[in-house]
Amino acid sequence: MEPRGMKKWRPFATMPEQYIGLKEMINKQSEVAQPVLTEEQMEQINFTLIEALHTNKQVYLTYYKQGHYITETGFIQFVDSLGNLFIFIDDVFELKNKMKLSELIDVRLA
Prior knowledge:
By secondary structure, this protein is α+β, with helices and mostly antiparallel strands. Helix content is 28%, strand content 35%. It is elongated and about 70 Å long.
């Protein structure tokens, strides 16, 4: 006869749908609205993006995605202000990310 080992007892885990619903409710409560940037803030972001593109400096990008603010570090590879998009290379995984300029909240040189 083999021992069964340690088994964790979870008395309220019989309904996994309940945990999914609770997780969604908690995520909804932590969501924030996308801020509206002034013309001056947008000009400053554009200036910083172009400077980082030409000098190949690392930047801290703060952007809005699905109700949350996300900050990443990376390098700007391409900026298209008419097409409202830019491409940056993530510092951690070195992946190319294409993003809309309208999602940006803040850009700072590292």
